[in-house]
Amino acid sequence: MSSYGASAEDIPWIGVAVVAAVAPFEALRPVLSLPGQSLSSVELVLVMLFVGWGVVLLRAHALPEWRTALTSPWLAFLGASVLAALLAQQDRSNALHAAGRLGLAFGVYLVTATGVSRFGRLRRVITACVLGGAVAALIVVLDYGRVPFVVRLLEVFRVGDAVVGGQIRASGPFQYPTIASMYLEIVFALGLGLLLVAVDGGSRRRAIILGLMLVLVAAAVNFTFTRAGLLTVTGSLVIVAALRYRSAGWDKGLTALGCVTGAVAVLFATSRSAEAWQLRLTTEGQDSWYRATVDAPREVTLPGGSIARFPVRVTNSGRVTWTTSGDPRFYFSHHWLVADADQVVAWEARRFAFLDAVPPGGSEVIDVEIKAPRRAGRYRVLWDIEQEHRLWFSTEPGAAWDVTFATVTPPIGPVGLNEPPVTLRALPKSGKRPQRIQLWGAAVRMFASHPVSGVGPDNFRLRYGEYGSLATADPRVHSNNMYLEILAGGGLLTLAAFGWLFWRAALTFGMAAGARDRHVAALGSGVAAAGVAIAVHGLVDSFLTFTATYTMSAIVLGLAASAASSIGTHANRFRRHDP
Length: 579
What we know:
There is one protein chain. The two termini are 17 Å apart. The protein has helices at 3-22, 41-60, 71-87, 92-115, 119-144, 148-153, 177-200, 204-223, 227-248, 252-270, 274-282, 436-449, 460-467, 482-513, 518-537, 547-564; strands at residues 32-34, 37-39, 62-64, 162-164, 167-169, 292-295, 299-303, 307-316, 330-338, 343-346, 352-353, 363-371, 377-387, 391-392, 403-409, 425-426, 574-576. Mean pLDDT is 87; it is low at 1-6 and 568-579. Strands 7, 9, 10, 11, 13, 14, 15 and 16 form an 8-stranded mixed sheet that branches. A 3-stranded antiparallel sheet has the order 6-8-12, with no helix packed on it. The chain is an alpha+beta fold. It has 2 domains: 3-279 and 464-576, no CATH class; 292-395 and 398-426, Sandwich (Immunoglobulin-like), CATH 2.60.40.10. Helix 5 packs across helix 7, helix 7 packs antiparallel against helix 15 and helix 12 (436-449) packs across helix 13. The chain contains 16 helices and 17 strands.
């Protein structure tokens, strides 16, 4: 074998390992911008991998064995996506960009499937995935802990924090918590197979390190507060354990999996309150979480600039306990508005702490004081509750207001002369994110209008407003369903091709998990669990256009194709040809 042939064999799996390790760390700003297209930092690494591999192959006069178990259906899916992008009536450049990303994903798959041709390479690539995932998971955990220098550093990778129900949803170096969760779910599943190989190899130290890394990754999934993440982490443990038991019965590998399962269960149970988990798992949004009923005087009269004191009864009519300790706390307060419009005279006012935690249905009497504006006139006092540094109840979608009308008379004494006019500002509003059922309905209507080729890949987020009858639509919002996203963006043509790919992938995962070699089967069980995690999470989220997730999904498919084939029996998967 020539040195070029050896290089052609080495570059793919080493390149895939590098890509797997850097996939979580994609900067927001593209590093290369072209007319209508751009390349992120991770995508540039992908292009460099392809170019380097191609140069070595050309110099070696070699071709990769590109006919793999998934090549044909993937090419069909890619071709259908490109056609749908070309036929898009609006936002064609965005659709072509999305199709281009699917092309990069196919390239990653092909390099993985053809380059990871031996067990040692399979193990090393999965190790790189787990190491990169562990680093990303550590950053997610530090993000959740609000470590200042980490939070500042993460501005390179994302915009702002995600919060649901006052709970921080950590995302680490990923743009969104759901993307962080999907990536980490894949890493967790792959790591389970690697753990079994370490146990089978008798390396106790390596097994312990891998077990700790898996718990760290599970902790990061937990801190993203993603419901599907909890399901798929649990599912991966069940799948890998079941496959192990079927092939080997109860052994040290199952014991190791049991230890990880116990640690993860304790972690999930103790990391957040039972109330937080109940609300997150049983409600779609937080519209009904923050509600209060205030029994206060209907009318008050007081001189400008003076202070009035009186008791009010505040009842928790929402679903979240108002805590008085820890972070965040709840405080009772008020705002001054003009009488006949939703305009703010004074937003900031004194905050009053609750004496004890107020559970849903509970109430407390608070002796409040209000300080009137100095300018005489007719006003409204809007009673409100703040979840410290997170939100005000009055700005939540669908909030009902309790107000006290106030007549402010001229101030007493000479200080009341020539008072300047009151400066008004708009009332703060919090944007209401559409619920999944609305997004899914918009996707179905989008498909009904364009059944053959859809509106173009990734164009759902740009057009769902008109199909969902939404006055304002955030272009960052996807359909929250991978399958509906494909149907709306590519129509029946693309969905049929994707269905073919899905079916062939399912068969390939089964073959990988059932490999004859014990060690390959162990890794294959983790790869199969990762495939199931992608398929299941895709029912409630869409992530094919995000670099970290489409890259890892492609690597998983490539690893499955390698593990399902006669891995390790060929010293060279490249065939020679004459120039």
